[in-house]
């Protein structure tokens, strides 16, 4: 309901959303699908690329994780014992979390899941890179169709306890104004390294006041939420989209 109100309030819908709105008030999912298929703003392609998006954050004065290496050719160096996330830049998923040269989490893209604790080598990462970069994610989505396949390894960022990987924060923006900030916790199971799916915790915040909103996902209880200052920081990154 919060998303639907934010998506349909204010000015007329952009022209590319007209078909989705023709039969009556569209659902949020219909609006998202119409935007993915028809929105042609060049900035969307840059924001979709996990390497290029760092430039957007830089322009907004927000620090991003240090890049240990990035490649379009799968030339993977020896990274050593650094804790890092190895991911494809042009698609969703395709992620390996590494600590001390060992796998601690893996979101596959068709390959066999890596066991937690298994050793990570440049050869393994190059093999994953070769697989991931052979295909695009979804060429029916215009922004993804403009990307060049590649990979990036960036230093893993931790929560204040120094042991738990940092949470995800997502923003929903409509007509240049951030409408919701979503805080996602407990994404990976510590024992199996698998994404927790429906067992993760999602907390939604009002981007102006920072207060928590009564929104539930998959009937799961919300998490602890973000401090208002963090909510405002997320809002400032997303405003204008």
Care to describe what's here?
Mean pLDDT is 83; it is low at 1-13. The protein has helices spanning 2-8, 18-21, 28-38, 42-48, 53-59, 122-132, 142-145, 228-238; strands spanning 67-71, 84-88, 95-99, 102-107, 151-155, 168-174, 177-185, 201-205. Helix content is 26%, strand content 20%. The strands form two sheets. The protein has a five-stranded antiparallel sheet, with helices on one face. The chain has a three-stranded antiparallel sheet with strand order 6-7-8, with helices on both faces.
List keywords for this structure.
alpha+beta; 26% helix; disordered N terminus; five-stranded antiparallel sheet; three-stranded antiparallel sheet; 241 residues; 2 domains; 8 strands
Distance between the termini: 21 Å
Main sheet: which strands, in order across?
Answer: 1-5-2-3-4
Low-confidence stretches: 1-13
Our count of helices gives 8
Largest sheet: 5 strands, antiparallel
Order of helices and strands: HHHHHEEEEHHEEEEH
How many beta strands in the DSSP annotation?
A: 8
Quote the beta fraction: 15-25%
Give the structural class: alpha+beta
Estimated radius of gyration: 19 Å
Please indicate the count of domains.
Answer: 2
* Average pLDDT rating: 83
Oligomer classification: single chain
Helix content: 25-40%
- What overall geometry do the principal axes of the alpha carbons give? globular
